[in-house]
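Researcher: For the annotation table, I need structure tokens for Lipoprotein. Please keep the output clean. Sequence:
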Amino acid sequence: MHTRILLLLTVVVLALMAACSGNTKDNTPNDPAPAGQEAPSAEEPSTEEPSDPAAEEPAQGSNEQPAGNDEGTQPDLFESGVFIDWNSVEDPLLDDKLKATLQAFLTAVTKPDEAGYERLFPNHATEDHADFRDVLEKPMNYRFEEVGKAIEEAGRILVPVSGTSRDDVFGVREFSNNLYFKQNEQNEWEVILID
């Protein structure tokens, strides 16, 4: 239940941040008007013409690219998948078996591979974890790029993963999640929690 509330609050905060970040050209009380001009009140609509997107594109034949035109920010150039250099992941808590399980789980998320996801995260359907099933059911893509330092905690291993994701609501943005692993009765690693 707490996970759902935190997830809802995160979505609301991100939506507010996205809505506010697009208003960089208007003059508001926090952004005084140039000398000799009166700042419009917050209740008056802006009379500025929207900028012409074609004017911001480089001339044909030019090698110049528009600002921010890279794989990390442009949805049409976004490539989902696991882009982690596994040979550079050196952590005493991530043995070969745990590293292989982590790699298989991240791959299952990016394909999406429902059977692999369910096998590696057997309690995915419980009330506390049901929201994370959205990674397989909604049109969202993940690009996993980094594994953080693992932490041993209460008989389980917390592994931070981060990268960029894309969805229809927020577009392309950075994310970070913690995956909690524990060995089952057969001594195989499995995901027991995502936050």
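Researcher: And a one-line annotation?
Model: The radius of gyration is 22 Å.
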